[in-house]
Write a structure and sequence with these properties.
The protein is an all-beta fold. It is 0% helix and 21% strand. The chain is elongated.
Length: 58
């Protein structure tokens, strides 16, 4: 699960992996610009690999 929070009202929104963040807050209707992810995603995001200092030499 991905966890987002509305910067307007503070509502916490949980969304399954692979689903984009909601277009608006279900509580106050604020736009997606006010909704920010609060949990840390997997290392390196979609590209994988993580930061260069954590990658194993090839």
């Amino acid at each position: 699960m991905k966890i987002f929070q509305c910067g307007n009202c503070g509502q916490t929104i949980e969304v399954p992996q692979g689903v984009p963040k909601p277009p608006s807050c279900p509580r106050c209707g604020a736009s997606s610009a006010m909704i920010h992810r609060i949990d840390k995603g997997p290392p390196g995001g979609r590209r994988g690999g993580g930061p260069p200092w954590q990658r194993s030499p090839q």
